[in-house]
Design brief:
The chain is of the alpha/beta class. It contains 11 helices and 18 strands. α1 packs antiparallel against α10, α5 crosses α6 and α10 packs across α11.
């Protein structure tokens, strides 16, 4: 990660994206040297993974000539880049639920001088740009669960043009599950190649197939926080599906202590997960004008926005898919930000994002939950960026820092 070059009281968006940079790698495809910036926390952040390489090799041997391909779960863009550089597709659209991956895909397209690629953030086929595709290509996420795998495999039929095909690579432990899903549907298996650790599938549809409804929805459950009871629809693949975390509890306690009884124009819940923070805050803080939910993860935004709008009828709930904690469309009238520190992002990245949020919204306060062992390091990094902080709450090895522009 690199935070050098950060000057002035308000880090800009480019500095935040640069702070995620882990390293740059090279690949030579079809006689062309390609370079990729890799972000920290991204999938395969050490290089092009073996599954992707095997998938690309299979496609290259088939020598397709597609007009428009979809790279589902594009990461930082290696599949899309290979398809375009190799002349296998005239145009590639990439989509990823992590907007950081999308930003780095766009960056890498520019680095490689490629204009016939487009990248969007979103959740699988829900947010794919309209139109028909000649092919759908994906390195299937292993931990997504069978219902989500079924959706990815089958709903492809709804956006493929006649004669279109799907190429996927999966880890070997998923082979029996994938076989079972494809065998039960009107699917023509065009090829299947087994490797040590991976399986590459190529298939087409004999007729349209419907995927499962609400594949990410887990179940509706009853939750309670200090006497406040509420029901919430838990989504698979996100934490806090059965109980609130220590960080959420601490943030709620700190918010009630610092802002109870005050009118707030806008509060921003960063990394909102299932939506617990937003829902409970609307019960314990009176006079909230608007709640903005900000996350890198499109699934977290879908879950938290769904739950917030279900349980906060009549309140203004805004959803923002962003790498940072603040963007222009959040607005300048923010009184309170809340977030739990993401250890995977690191202290430097988190401090930069907090600094940009505080400096962009004069008078705002940022409550951030973290481990006591990280408190001093985070406070020091914030101080170097012109942000003051003090401990607002602590319990069982966790704490909440109250941060503001100095």
């Amino acid at each position: 990660m690199n935070t050098t070059g950060v000057t002035g009281p308000r880090p800009d968006r480019t500095q935040v994206l640069d702070a995620y940079h882990k390293k740059t790698i090279e690949a030579r495809w079809h006689g062309k040297r390609c370079v990729f910036d890799l972000p920290v926390t991204g999938f395969s952040s050490f290089g092009i993974d073996l599954g992707t390489s095997r998938l690309l090799r299979g496609i290259e041997l088939a020598k397709p000539r597609w007009k428009r391909a979809l790279d589902l779960g594009c990461g930082y863009g290696p599949i899309a880049t290979s398809l375009v550089v190799g002349g296998m597709s005239d145009m590639v659209v990439g989509i990823d639920r992590d907007i950081l991956s999308v930003e780095y895909s766009r960056r890498n397209a520019l680095k490689n001088g490629l204009s016939n690629m487009a990248f969007v953030g979103g959740l699988a086929y829900e947010d794919v740009p309209p139109g028909r595709y000649s092919a759908i290509v994906s390195n299937l996420p292993a931990k997504a669960g069978e219902t989500v795998h079924r959706m990815i495999l089958l709903e492809a039929s709804g956006i493929l043009e006649p004669g279109g095909e799907v190429w996927i690579v999966v880890v070997t432990p998923l082979e029996a599950q994938i076989d079972r899903i494809l065998d039960a549907e009107p699917v023509s298996l065009l090829s299947k190649t087994n490797y040590n650790g991976h399986v590459v599938y190529r298939y087409a549809f004999r007729s349209p197939v419907a995927g499962p409804e609400n594949p990410f929805l887990r179940r509706r459950s009853l939750f309670a926080w200090r006497g406040i009871a509420y029901e919430l629809d838990a989504f698979a693949g996100l934490p806090e599906f059965d109980t609130l975390s220590y960080d959420t509890d601490l943030l709620l306690r700190a918010a009630a202590k610092q802002f109870g009884g005050k009118n707030l124009r806008t509060i921003v819940v960063c990394n909102p997960g299932q939506g617990h923070l937003a829902v409970v805050l609307s019960r314990i803080l009176n006079g909230i004008g608007r709640i903005a939910l900000v996350s890198r993860d499109a699934l977290a935004l879908k879950a938290s926005t769904f739950n917030a709008r279900q349980l906060m009828a009549g309140q203004d709930v805004r959803s923002v898919h962003s790498v940072g904690f603040w963007e222009d469309h959040v607005g300048p009238d923010v009184d309170l930000f809340l977030a739990a520190l993401d250890k995977k992002e690191g202290i430097e990245v988190s401090a930069l994002k907090i600094s940009r949020a505080c400096c962009s919204t004069p008078g705002s306060v940022f409550l951030v939950a973290c481990g006591m062992s990280l408190r001093s390091r985070l406070a020091a990094q914030l101080r170097s960026l012109g942000i003051s902080s003090n401990t607002a709450m602590e319990h069982a090895g966790r704490c909440v820092l109250l941060c503001a522009s100095a």
